[in-house]
Fold each of these.
Amino acid sequence: AQSVSQHNHHVILSEAASLELGCNYSYGGTVNLFWYVQYPGQHLQLLLKYFSGDPLVKGIKGFEAEFIKSKFSFNLRKPSVQWSDTAEYFCAVKRGYGGATNKLIFGTGTLLAVQP
Amino acid sequence: DGGITQSPKYLFRKEGQNVTLSCEQNLNHDAMYWYRQDPGQGLRLIYYSQIVNDFQKGDIAEGYSVSREKKESFPLTVTSAQKNPTAFYLCASNTGQAGSPLHFGNGTRLTVT
């Protein structure tokens, strides 16, 4: 069965540290890849997505992610985190054969805490 | 502002009772979804609807039912057949086009005792 793995369940960083959150998926075909973020008390929102083209995608708030097809990975990165980045981050994968995001598979989430 | 409204934010029910969670969107989105979020399990798809008067089961549909009589509304009923109903429920919508990101509501936390 298709699955999405986020290996880090809890990450604690100090401000200005670099961040990399891992995301691996098991499906071998064409995929669309997403990172969603849920700030405390807020709804889930899209951080960035990969659909096609340049495998290095940039999102909001200085985040970026790189799609490495050979490694089935879509890791999220940020060079210097801020206290306001404290949130839960979800990786999600959809098979890329068109249609609605109806079979978006989510990872289990990574809780990031940034200490001031 | 356009968005998705889920109500209520917190809901308490006795075991054996059916309960309906509301989801309304004013984004003019064709597709709507219900997810369940449990600690350590991420989001799991319960039901989705790509168009009015049509819906499909997701990965964990047992014990749930939905309807889509209007484009803007997609209520979820948690029936007494759902063995573990206590959870955080998220409603989402998108245009239905490939790659269209999901827009989420703020969620409803259901507690069944």
Amino acid sequence: DQQVKQNSPSLSVQEGRISILNCDYTNSMFDYFLWYKKYPAEGPTFLISISSIKDKNEDGRFTVFLNKSAKHLSLHIVPSQPGDSAVYFCAASGDTGTASKLTFGTGTRLQVTL
Amino acid sequence: GAGVSQSPSNKVTEKGKDVELRCDPISGHTALYWYRQRLGQGLEFLIYFQGNSAPDKSGLPSDRFSAERTGESVSTLTIQRTQQEDSAVYLCASRLSGGAQETQYFGPGTRLLVL
């Protein structure tokens, strides 16, 4: 049972344009969401997060939007740069039990072309 | 070093052998996690250590998997009688404490291949 889903395995965007990566979740207990970026042969690196009490969080070129009613979040990167080419993982955590464990999606590979 | 380190970076073993994977968390981080990522899949939670509390082992896939952590330092993940389905990247992460909204910092992973 995949509780966090990233339905697009890959995305190609031109440099300077907006990249939009999508993520859906099914567990209504999730209340904290994160995006991680992963380069080959490296561990995931934290990018940006959002709490369920917010619907938007912005950090420089990166903005995460959360739509709780739709159980959907998205990561916007604008403008996209070649160095943004990586695999992006959406992750979620709840506030009970092993609250701090993260449940990950399968990732979206972003390719930013020149 | 400043980050989470893991060793070995790569491990090839024969089916049925035991393997031991090591994680050195960031100094001072009380919480430590193990995840694994099989080919084409997302990261799966395996086990969580928080200070001196009993570890949460709810993600371990079978009793062939075990992990230990000494205090707030090194952790080892042991897989006994390895199977081909154990082939994956095993990732360790640490965080300052167990706060649900704190960032987890990941190591580079150990790529395990079971032949």
